Prior knowledge:
By secondary structure, the protein is of the alpha+beta class. The chain has three helices and nine strands.
Amino acid sequence: MDLRDLAAIVTGAVAIYGAGLSTYTALVSRRAAQRRLRAELTLGVIGDQPEPRTVFLLSAVNPGQRVVTITMAVIRLPDGRQFVPLDPPLAQFLPRELREGQRFSIPVPIAHVVTALAEAGYRDRVRLRADFRDVLDINHMSRPLRGNVSKWAELADRQNQQAV
């Protein structure tokens, strides 16, 4: 192997490295420029009444660098239908502008969701999702929250009995 062969190998390696680095930089800057929103649906406990109560929390966090404005939030039932929380009124929370790293949550009483599921015919295990829509009409769905409607109904009944 002479010096010209070695120079060609080094030149090729530097060219491949440069192309890879350039591609990586382009992907990172493209991702930074995108609007992103991470949606979550969880069970939580809030203590805003005399007794703590369990609620579904529709949460959204902006992990990106661009502002995202949320205009709608619903819970997706297993068949794809939407449950729109009316208590508390969504107008109290939306529209909401989320800057980089900001999070917000909407608490929905467990009894309201259980009633909607029962009316839709669900009694046992279900998968629910939070679905947020932004100002550009893009939906951001959470991972499914798996649970049992009858257990949630028991929890809602206990909370109603404690409230009385």
